[in-house]
Amino acid sequence: MSTVYRPDEDSMLLLRNMESRIRGNVLDMGTGSGVLAVAAASYAEVVGVVAVDVDSEAIEKAESRAREAGISSRIEFRGGDLFEGMEGERFDWIIFNPPYLPSEGSADEVSWVGGVRGGETVDRFLNQAGDHLNPGGGILLVVSSLTSFDRNEVKETFSLSVLEELPLFYERLYCLLLEPLNPSGVPGRIRRRRRPRRERGR
């Protein structure tokens, strides 16, 4: 059985909040089936997308989705655990639909379990993400009401806004916007970047 995460309510939650914001160079962390990477690569103001996943099967499915959409030339797919091997690389936007649920024991799958508390993967991601954002960059992140991570610690580095809340039967999902704080404690503004002339109008 495939362990690649299938697009669900959390994927749609991110998609609804991406289109009006995403531009420049984009990193789709934990790309899964590639639905977010393909959507981002289709936006007029996106220059290019890097899509990363620790699961090689996920990369294969995401590449297939991109080919079917006729957009694979605008996405670079990579295998890796979070920011592994990405030293020195920076992006204007990072999008992440992480594994965010607490462990249930033997039924766990890497595509949806974020650790014993549910937030360990999110914590690892946020500890590194600021080093991979351009000035004025931002992060779109989905978490659940069941995800245990330290929001107060996050707020020491990022401004945190809830863009949308989605109530489900057994939990609530949140689409979060995180922007790095500048030295004065104020989030930087997202800079609009023009696409290269050869890319316009595609």
**Average predicted local confidence, pLDDT:** 83
Q: SSE order, as H and E?
A: HEHEHEEEEHEHEE
Number of strands: 9
User: Reading side by side through the largest sheet, how are the strands ordered?
Assistant: 3-2-1-4-7-9-8
Q: In CATH terms, what is the architecture?
A: 3-Layer(aba) Sandwich
**What is the total number of structural domains?**
1
Most strands sheet: 7 strands, mixed
CATH topology: Rossmann fold
Report the structural category: alpha/beta
The portion of residues forming beta strands comes to 25-35%
Unreliable stretches (pLDDT < 50, length at least 5) are: 189-202
So how many helices?
5
**Helix coverage percent:** 10-25%
Termini, distance in Å?
37 Å
What is the general shape? globular
- The Rg value, from CA coordinates, equals 16 Å
Write a structural description.
The chain is α/β, with parallel strands linked by helices. It has one domain (9-199): Vaccinia Virus protein VP39 (Rossmann fold), CATH 3.40.50.150. Helix content is 22%, strand content 30%. The protein is built from 5 helices and 9 strands; from the N terminus they run H-E-H-E-H-E-E-E-E-H-E-H-E-E. The chain has helices at 9-18, 35-41, 56-68, 120-129, 151-154, and strands spanning 24-29, 46-53, 75-79, 91-96, 101-102, 113-115, 133-144, 158-167, 172-180. The strands form 2 sheets. The chain has a 7-stranded mixed β-sheet. The chain has a two-stranded parallel ribbon with strand order 5-6. Helix 1 (9-18) runs parallel beside helix 2. The longest helix has 13 residues, at 56-68. The model is unreliable at 189-202 (pLDDT under 50).
